[in-house]
Amino acid sequence: MDDIDTKLIALLGENARAPVATLARRLGLARSTVQARIDRLEGRGVIAGYALRLGDGAKRELIRATVLITLEPRATAAVLSRLKAMTQVEAAHTASGRFDLVVTLAARSTAELDDALDRIGEIGGVRGSESLIHLSTRIDRRG
């Protein structure tokens, strides 16, 4: 990747639906050059896909929490399998330190969030968890 690829990815991060002609104009390149770069970045797996980002109106409707989970030895795969089946789980990361997993939840109500937390606690292999409810977002570089 060079500086132009980095700038192209930044522009796509702002608006993944931007027409190639607009991207080309902003980069000072030919449309065909920009399209070829996008194709190459997709082919190399640098761009893995394009996603929908919800606006503030939709985000306000969701209650988010981070759940720090401690696991029994060798339980990671089974626990991740169960977490993957839960629609409230947005992301799950392995971690070093006191906790083995860091999980982000999103729910439409406190009752739904409470239920999801209870279900996580009941998963075989979960030794313990600590929940952090997100109150407000001050910085979000993911969009």
Gross morphology is elongated
Instruction: Describe the strand arrangement of the main beta sheet, using strand numbers.
Output: 2-3-1-4
What is the number of domains?
A: 2
The assigned CATH architecture of the largest domain is 2-Layer Sandwich
- The first-level CATH class name of the largest domain: Alpha Beta
Total helical segments: 6
Q: How would you name the CATH homologous superfamily of the largest domain?
A: Lrp/AsnC effector binding domain/regulation of amino acid metabolism (RAM) domain
Named CATH topology of the largest domain: Alpha-Beta Plaits
Question: What proportion of the residues is helical, as a percent range?
Answer: 40-55%
Q: What structural category arises from helix and sheet content?
A: alpha+beta
Amino- and carboxy-terminal Cα gap: 23 Å
Q: Which radius of gyration do the C-alpha atoms yield?
A: 20 Å
Mean pLDDT across the residues is 91
Main sheet record: 4 strands, antiparallel
**SSE order, one letter for each helix or strand:** HHHHEHEEHE
Proportion of β residues? 15-25%
Low-pLDDT stretches are none
**What's the number of extended β-strand segments?**
4
